[in-house]
Structure formats: structure tokens, C-alpha cells
Amino acid sequence: MQRFNGWGVDGSSGFIRKEITVKRLSIIVLALSLVASIAGNLRGQSDFDYQKVTWLRWMDPYRNPITYQEYRDSRPFVGEFDARCIYSGSKGDTPICIVINALLRPAIETAFSQFISDLELEGYSLNVYTAINDGDETALKNILISEWNSRNIAGAILIGDLPVAWYEMTHPPEYGGNHVEFPIDLYFMDLDGRWLDRDTDGLYDGHGEGAGGMEADIWVGRFLAFNLTQHGASEIDMVNNYFDKNHSYRTGELRLTDKALAYIDNDWCMYGYEDDVALAYPVTDAVTDPYQTTREDYMQRVRESTDNQYENLLICSHSTPWAHYLYWGDGPYDYSLFHNYEIEQIDVQVLFYNLFACSNCRFVEQDDMGNWYIFQSTYGLLSLGSTKSGAMLCFDDYYGPLGNGLSFGEAFLWWCINNMESCYSPYSRVWFYGLVLLGDPTLRLSRFMSDHTGDANWDGTVDPADVVFLINYLFRGGTAPDPLRLGDVTGDCSVDAADVIYLINYLFRGGSAPETGCA
Questions:
Q1: What pLDDT shows up at residue 394?
Q2: Residue at 478 is within a domain
Q3: d(CA 461, CA 466)
Q4: How many CB atoms lie within 10 A of CB 513?
């Protein structure tokens, strides 16, 4: 994408493509919602007056958000973006695009290759590009526009240090009247809108309709760990570990309980957000007592040693990129802090986060919590949050689709199409323009992830080759299924000759399908 007289050049065939995307998502969501409605499960806050909601505040009295110029001055940008397509696959039906930092990829090759294989087994058709962060967000967007126009991609995953688009606005007086600058991934999601930089200072300051409107066209997720420094962090080690967790989740090895925690601090405890979370997780524990939502209580509920096993967490708290400020009383300073470095220390036991927490996903800051939640050692796969003051509202358009089987990327895209400009009109942009997904948007709630038990050789099908694979493993010293549960077709938590017989009966004699393995 090139700037011309302050305006972005938009995609040429965007209107038709956007119409297709909206119609496709509409059909899926409306059909699934009808089923849920018949079942009596729609309980969200769709009629709630969001104008009543308390504004999120930046709480740190000593640090201010990094500015665009400070970001530019601190980065060793290279001279040329130099994007190259290094892989093109056509194994799936859903086209997506991956752009990965060219210097990071060789160091994570094995884990990244497993990630590509996993995505293809899930039905995605991939084009993978390498690139360098030269500070030019338009070059990165051009790749996405080309992929959207040529292949109608559903979404894009950005891995490592890649260009960032920045936006600036002045908040209205009722929101403090301050000037703010922040990263905006909506820029990469709306591929045919017009983006204005009226003062040519490098930050966008306007967004309008292009060839096909200004709604999001694709989902975008990014994960980057190069700016995480605590606990001896290494970008290579953390990204490798993330992919290992991702693979374990896809194969069913990494699982928590199918339930959520809605942890809602004083300023929002009366709004019933937990009912929206319940659209995705019928079992949702809500903590809304103003005298209960404290640092100590929060830590006790989410730490691994307590073993509550919440798959999903909504936390509503005044915050900064580095801490949650949880109120325990009525005074203006009656709060206690949960810090970013404590995520790893207590081994927070959650996989998916909605961080209604000021600037928690401001990924240009060092050691932001949104990234620490997903790059901690044991758990964490995806964070949704904001790069500025603000957060998601109109939650039902996010949790409803998740509860009906859509991926996190699809659910977020549906939310953006329906709410980005309208949920909190006329101040929607103040609330929502900083929203980002950190992590892998292709994931779904665990109950909607495929069960691959029986696919012992992990090639995407259960067939005679899996029988041969198990025989080689059990009797000839061959490679074990990875994870072992893929070979536990009897569901008795062990892999033995009984599993070979069971699989033969299933494949050749009309026997029962494989059980869910637990070995």
C-alpha cells in the first residue's frame, strides 16, 4: 500500500470480496445463533446501554506510553523490507497468509514447520513469506492486499519483529482530552479502506471508506517476543515453546476444563459481562464482589497450584502494559497490583484471555502483559486486548460466535465488522481502535478442536498406514505416536496390541470409531 496525498491506495476488487466475507460470516453466525436460540442459550447483554460504562484509565504515575517517535528512535530498522514467498501450499480449503521475520525463521525452523503442518491438517491453505522490519507498514500491507485479491485469504498471522502501523487521535473532553499515539492492527485488517495521514508525520489520523467500505476484511493475529526480557527470556526459546504448546493443544495433549472465569473489578461489576462470557462457556465462574477482587484473590484463582483449570479468562481492571490495578476498597488509592513478572512466577493456568485492561496488549512496550500471558512457559495461547486506553464492549458478538464453534480470528472479525465503528457511537474509535489479537487466531475452544486419536502417524487421516505405524512402534522399535494419546484408540490410557486390533476392526470390519485417547 502506498500513501498518495495523505490517502492510502485501496485494493481494487475490495467491495465484492468484502461483501462475500460479510455474507459468509453472517450466514455462519446467524445459522449457529438460531440453533443456540432454540436451545435457550443466548443470554448476552445485547440490549445493554454501553454509554454507561466506566472509562478505562492508564494507572502508572511514573511511566507514560512510548510515543511513535520514541519507538522509531529505539528500533534498528533495516534498509529494505525484502519480502519473499518461501512456501505455497494448497492442501486445505481456507486460504491464509503467514509473514514471519526472516532472521527469526531459521532459528525456529523445526517448530515452525510443525506449525505449518498442523495448520494444513486443520484445512488451511498457506502462503508463507519472510520479511524484515524496515518500518514500512505499507509494504507489509501490500502483501496482504495481494493475497486477499488473488486468493481471498481469511486472515493473516504475523510472527516476530515486523512493521507496525500507528494511529493518533485526541480524546474528547469527557475522556480526558489528551493526545494519544498507538499501534493499530485494524490497518492490516481493512484492506480496501482509506487511511489518512494529514500532517504526514508517519501516524495515521483518519480512516474512511474506500472501494468497499472501511470494515475489517480479514482477521489478523501477531505474536512477537523480542521485547520480553524477564526471567532470562529469549525470543527464540519463547517462540519455540509457544509452537510446542500450540501443537500440544491441537493434538489434545494440552487441555484445561471447559469453563471460564469472569474476574470483574469494582467499576464494571454491575454490568453482567459474565453473562456474555457464558455464551461461549456455559460454566463461567464470576467474581464481582468489590471487596473480593484483589491481587491476592486473583492470584489464588489463576495460579497452577490452585488447579482451577480455567480455559478462558475475562479480566476487567484498570491497568497499564505492566500491571493490573485491582481495587479492594472505596478510596481512590485502595488498589493492589498484579505485575507482569508474576505471570511466570505463579504459572497462570489459563489458555485464552480477554484483557479488558488498559493498554495490556500494547506490544511495542517492553514486557507487556498481553504477550507475557501467552509466552509464559506452561499455558497461554491467545490474548485479546488493546494497545491504548479502551477495550472490547458489545461482548455478545465475540463470545456468541466462539460458543458456536468459530475460531478466535473469525469471532474477532465478526465483532469488528459489527462493532468497531458503532458499539459505542460516537466514541467507538476511542474505545476500540487499539484492539489486537496476540497469538494464533486459528484456534477454537477445546470442545471444537478436532480429535485426532487414531491418526498415529499424524498425516491428517486415519487409514491402514496408522495400523502399520502402531505395529512398528509396538513390535519393531519404531517411532512412538506424538503425542502418545494418538495411538490410544481404545481410550484406556495405554497404547498396546489391543489398540492395533481395535483400529483394524474400525478400518476393515465396521467396528466402532476410535475413542478419545488419554495415554
A1: 96
A2: yes
A3: 9
A4: 11
Name the stretches of the chain with pLDDT < 70. Answer: 1-48, 50-51
Nearest to 227 by CA among 114, 370, 92: 370
pTM attached to this predicted model: 0.88
Give residue 46's pLDDT.
47
Given this model, what pLDDT does residue 329 score?
A: 77
Q: In this structure, are 286 and 427 located in the same domain?
A: yes
> Would you say residue 16 lies in a domain?
no
- Residue 3 Ramachandran class (φ > 0 left, ψ -120 to 50 alpha, else beta): beta
- Residue pair 250/301 in contact by the 8 Å Cβ criterion: no
The half-sphere exposure of 259 on its side-chain side, counting CA atoms within 13 A, is 12
- 283 lies in the same domain as 379: yes
Q: Are residues 517 and 382 in the same domain?
A: no
Is 426 strand, coil or helix? Answer: coil
CB 85 within 8 Å of CB 150: no
- Backbone dihedral angles phi then psi of residue 84, each to the nearest 5 degrees: -135, 135
483: containing domain: 451-519
Do 338 and 294 reside in the same domain of the chain?
A: yes
Query: What pLDDT score was predicted for residue 232?
Result: 94
Tell me the CATH number at 305: 3.40.50
**Listed residues 395, 420, 448: the one ending a domain:** 448
CA-only gyration radius of the chain, Å: 23
Ramachandran assignment for 75, one of left (phi > 0), alpha (psi -120 to 50 degrees), beta (any other): beta
How do strand 124-131 and strand 84-88 relate by DSSP bridges?
antiparallel
- Looking at the structure, do residues 291 and 393 belong to the same domain, yes or no? yes
Q: CA dist 107 to 102, 113, 236, Å?
A: 10, 12, 7
Task: List Cβ neighbours of 105 (8 Å cut-off, separation of 6 or more).
Answer: 86, 112, 130, 160
- Number of structural domains, the chain? 2
Looking at residue 452, its pLDDT comes to: 81
CB atoms within 10 A of CB 478: 12
Phi then psi dihedrals of residue 7, to 5 deg: -110, 145
Torsions phi, psi for 306 (to 5 deg): -75, -30
pLDDT given at position 24? 55
Residue 458's pLDDT is: 84
Q: How far apart are CA 296 and CA 258, in angstroms?
A: 24
SS3 category, 266? helix
- The three-point CA angle 353-273-207 to 5° equals 70
- Residue 412: phi, psi to the nearest 5? -65, -40
Q: What is the pLDDT of residue 76?
A: 87
Grid cell of 352 as nine digits? 485464552
